[in-house]
Design a protein that fits this description.
Elements lengths: L5 E4 H13 L6 E7 L2 E8 L14 H13 L3 E9 L8 H5 L7 E6 L7 E8 L2 E5 L1 E4 L2
Parallel strand pairs: 1-8, 4-5
Antiparallel strand pairs: 2-3, 2-4, 5-6, 6-7
Amino acid sequence: MTQETIKIPRKITNQLLHLAQISPDIEICGLVGSKNGFPTHCYPIKNVAKFPEKNFLLDSSQQISAMKTMRALDEHFFGIYHSHPTAPALPSVEDINLTTYPDTLHLIISLNTKGILEMRGFKIHQNTSREIPLTMNDD
């Protein structure tokens, strides 16, 4: 079985890393829309978790608004992103247990990398995670 690789545009990658950098004390979060299986937009959403420095919870009204915008732009719901301010770019037990969108890509950005930001992708389904290799392109 060959492993799929997801191509992420440099523009989207830079946006996600920048959002994480400007809010280093909390987990940033949001959605990613795509066209033809290719990520096209990121939609930042407020983290309304009780302890946003340790986990994330998407603001439901902003999430609904982002999904409406995706439909209006003829985009598909491609993925969810969030950051880990002090942990590696790996799904936490809570990330795995609370996943409700098993067909989407979960992008995790780590700020815990001694000056080099890290972003990794995962498919999470039935309490297991599988890493999906990411490549960056200039399209």
